[in-house]
Design brief:
alpha/beta, ten-stranded mixed sheet, 17 helices, 18 strands, 19% strand
Length: 473
């Protein structure tokens, strides 16, 4: 493999450095046309919004799993003005089951979110995880040219940096872990803790969302690997990896522009006229980490404590379907819908129902209209790597108040939010009362401070700065 790398030769000085992005999810999704062709539509999500512009600027390759239309192995993107290549890896049904649904989402996801009782540490799933990670690594090596920068993303591909490093000893490699990094006592329940850490330490630069995650990661390296650590660095097997807190931002200008569009404003006004109450809003993927049942129970407790609020306040809960083929997620949906029915049955009167439940995906325009309509935004996950909904609401809100879980990574940046413990129904009910009674000037002042911080670290700045940091290592 080293010999093949030498044959590639060096880039001509006039060539630009290209970026190689490696992620489980692809930036554009295929959509069938009536004529049998495919349109490639940008995927919704922070990673696409951050890195698609960077790749369009530098050129390069995005390597991802081609879930839909897997026979299409390579696409030039964007479709109307190609600037870079999407390389789509095809995974077998067994690989999807064991790598993605198995080890990634039944081991790493619950472990990282402190749901140990939900973890399934399966040897076959782990072995498939290793195999699939190697396929991603080999694809990145094949795409690499001297001078390129490689950026690997998230918990599905934690072994890829080391695998690339073994084949390309001098390549600049970055890695970003997008979910929480747990405390050492939780992380050490993983039977392959040493292997996972070693995989990540193949990167020159490792990014996480908060300083707590960085601290926990370094503690895990000391305990599991007996590695040496200094502030922001880990020394392991003759190499040094920097570990930094770099919370991801949002497209602030895009959300602000959407929020000021007349059609979005009209839709927000329509929502308020239809309900004719104060509006609470929750927007979440239907995932057990998001604390939706706990939020509903807290709202029930609030209505019990404040019967005068009945008829004057409505909770709109948007739940976006997620992993519907997994039994635990189907059970969560049944629990949430049961709670909605019970609470509505308990408190409904005179044509007013306390909860409007929306179980489907929503367009960005519809989402922003709800942000504009809301008086109080409830972002109360039991554990979250960051949570961009809190930032999106801040960019879009007229003069609403934000209630934010202290267990969301965004809480470190968003001190002006009303911060709560989502495990305490009483505490959440008290926070709701505080937010509803907050003077208008205080709400505006808090939003203004939050918005200033959003502009200082928006999504494009996050991506550009991290790519530069990788290249400068």
């Amino acid at each position: 493999m080293h010999h093949r790398r030498q044959e590639r030769g060096r880039r001509h000085p006039a060539d630009r450095m290209a970026l190689i992005v490696v992620s489980n999810r692809e930036p554009y999704a295929p959509r069938s046309r009536d004529d049998g062709g495919l349109d490639w539509v940008p995927s919704i999500g922070g990673l696409t919004a951050a890195l698609d512009p960077a790749l369009q600027h530098t050129g390069g390759t995005w390597i991802a799993w081609g879930e839909a239309h897997p026979d299409v192995r390579e696409v030039q993107l964007p479709q109307d003005n190609p600037r870079y290549r999407l390389q789509r890896l095809r995974l077998s049904e067994a690989e999807v089951r064991d790598f993605y649904h198995g080890f990634s989402n039944r081991a790493l996801w619950p472990m990282s979110h402190y749901f140990i009782e939900r973890t399934r540490y399966d040897v076959v799933a782990w072995q498939t995880y290793v195999t699939v990670n190697r396929r991603f690594a080999e694809a990145a090596v094949a795409a690499y040219r001297n001078g390129d920068t490689i950026w690997v993303h998230d918990y599905q591909l934690a072994l890829v940096p080391r695998m690339i490093r073994e084949m390309l000893p001098d390549a600049p490699i970055g890695f970003f872990w997008h979910i929480p990094w747990p405390s050492t006592e939780v992380f050490r329940t993983l039977p392959w803790d040493r292997e996972l850490l070693d995989g990540m330490l193949g990167a020159d630069l490792i990014g996480m969302h908060t300083t707590d995650y960085v601290r926990y990661f370094q503690a895990a390296c000391r305990r599991a690997l007996d590695a040496d650590t200094d502030e922001g660095v880990v020394h392991w097997q003759g190499r040094t990896s920097r570990v930094v807190a770099r919370p991801i931002g949002i497209e602030v200008d895009v959300f602000e522009d959407l929020a000021s569009r007349p059609d979005v404003e009209d839709e927000a006004d329509r929502i308020r006229r239809t309900l004719q109450t104060l509006i609470l809003l929750g927007v979440d993927r239907l995932d057990y980490t998001k604390g939706i049942p706990e939020r509903l129970e807290a709202f029930d407790a609030y209505l019990d404590r404040h019967p005068d609020a009945r008829g004057r306040i409505t909770l709109i809960q948007i739940a976006v379907p997620s992993r519907e083929q997994v039994d635990s997620y189907r059970q969560l949906r049944a629990r949430v819908e049961g709670l909605v029915g019970r609470i509505n049955g308990k408190h409904t009167h005179s044509g007013w129902s306390p909860i409007q439940y929306i179980y489907r995906g929503v367009s960005r325009e519809e989402l922003v209209a709800h942000y504009r309509a809301a008086d109080v935004m409830l972002v109360t996950p039991l554990r979250d790597g960051l949570n961009l909904v809190a930032k999106e609401f801040t960019a879009c809100s007229r003069d609403g108040a934000l209630i934010l879980s202290r267990f969301a990574g965004a809480a470190d940046e968003m001190k002006e939010a009303v911060q709560v413990n989502p495990y305490s129904p009483g505490g959440l009910a008290e926070a709701l009362q505080m937010a509803l009674n907050m003077p208008l000037e205080e709400k505006k002042a808090r939003l203004q401070r939050l918005r200033s911080r959003l502009h200082a670290s928006d999504l494009r700045t996050w991506a550009e700065d991290f790519v530069k940091e990788i290249a400068d290592q």
